Amino acid sequence: MRSVTFLASLILGISALLHADSDCLEEENDCCCHYDCHYVDIKESTKISALPACGPLMPPFLADPRKIGMSAGWRVHDQAIKHVGVNDGFGPDCPSDHSGPVSFGDYAGLIRFCNPFCRGGILDIGIEGNVWAIFQHTRESAPLINADYYVAIPITYAYRCWAFRVRLYHISSHLGDEFLCNNLGFDRRNPSSEYIDFFMSWVPNCDIRIFGGAGFIVRRDETFQHRRLYFEYGFDYYFPVARWFIPKSCVLGRPFLGAYIRNREDNDYKFDGTFVYGYEWSRLYCDYKKIRVFMEYHTGYSLEGQFSRLRTEYAAFVVYYGY
Description:
mainly beta
């Protein structure tokens, strides 16, 4: 099943790329949303603005299950979470096929350099934070199972169709209080780590983005020693059909498809992928956030903190608000 899913996403990505228009040639693409930097001539001196009211130069990837933003969903058949607490804590409560993932977070640009070093392009330094939590809302008291806390400083440089990002970030995972109360003696670990990664993305037009990157864990807690290296890559694609546009309010609706693949040393570089298909509504002005409704399919390993070495496969319905 994983091989078929990966092959299908690869074929769709190549097909989308072959049908991409060459919109990004001599000037920055309007869809890249370069705002006040768009008209800065390369011969001019560097222009600096603080706290710019605009979004990130490398927006979150559509299928990234750890993207920044606010979301709520309904997940089914998550094998890593389904049996949590059944044998020692929940008594007669049956295994739950249902769980509720939620997230809350945002990005803020701190400082922007237009035409840095008189070489063209844009350089952004920002800050972002997020919380991802998973509840078993069909159990009695709807216990919180796990929450991951994230904070990062992304440094992004964009030039024409390309964007490059170096990110320093921290993630700490914490089991829910109700889960620990119901499972006395559970072997709690502390998967808390600091990371550094480098990503690059190519946006040839408004409909497709191809991206990839590599990262390294620079510090890890002794109680849960992740192996350090990982690679992540994928694509975002907006279909040119079934679009819905309201001229007066400049609202555009369009269907999308996304794939996000991970190969982590901690899981022996085995296949771990997330795929989404849904619909997005957004203003045509790039400093506005977007609303997305989509179906998500994940196969590989759990993303929930201490359970990250457990294999799982699940489907989810998600509503998302963010960049």
